[in-house]
Amino acid sequence: MRISNKKFVIEIIGDKNLEQFLKSSKEKLKKLSEYFQTIHQADHQTQLTIKIVSNEEIKSMNKKFKNKNKITDVLSFPDGDFSGDIAIADSYILNRNKKINEQNFFMLVSHGLHHLFGYHHYDKQSRSNMRFLENTLMKLLGLKKVHEN
Question: Is 30 helix (H, G, I), strand (E, B) or coil?
Fold first, then answer.
């Protein structure tokens, strides 16, 4: 599925389960697009790709690019000017019935996109800023906030 506006194009890649979920989440995806359009600082349109991957694939990427030999929930790979790729482990967004958990999906998309937009959580202040932005987006989407203050 593709989401686009004047400032960016987001391509989300996954299976048919994800496709159905995204179709039923059009209003939240529209709000997500509007939110990121407001924090987008580039003058030109950028390309973002979000891919849902297996535990094995994300573990391999984590080892190759972050030198960590373990499964993680989300990885972001910025390639400059607010563009890049995000990988999300399917085990973190699927429930027992193999249905996508809306809260977890949007939380990990939010986290990965904030990284692509230059936010990080390496120190106390930047972690606080990023958590505030993640909670703001989750509230905008009508979901539970991710972090307690």
Answer: helix
Burial class (CB in 10 A: 0-12, 13-18, 19+), 49: middle
Cα dihedral angle (59, 60, 65, 66), rounded to 10 degrees?
30
Question: Could you state, in order of their start, the residue ranges of all structural domains in the chain?
Answer: 2-140
User: Is the pLDDT assigned to residue 85 strictly greater than 90?
Assistant: yes
Render pLDDT for 3-35 as a digit per residue (tens, 0 to 9): 877 777 888 998 888 989 999 999 999 898 888
Handedness of CA 87, 38, 9, 16 (dihedral sign): positive
Q: Which of 84, 79, 76 is nearest to 120 (CA)?
A: 76
Q: Look up the CATH superfamily of 2-140.
A: Metalloproteases ("zincins"), catalytic domain (3.40.390.30)
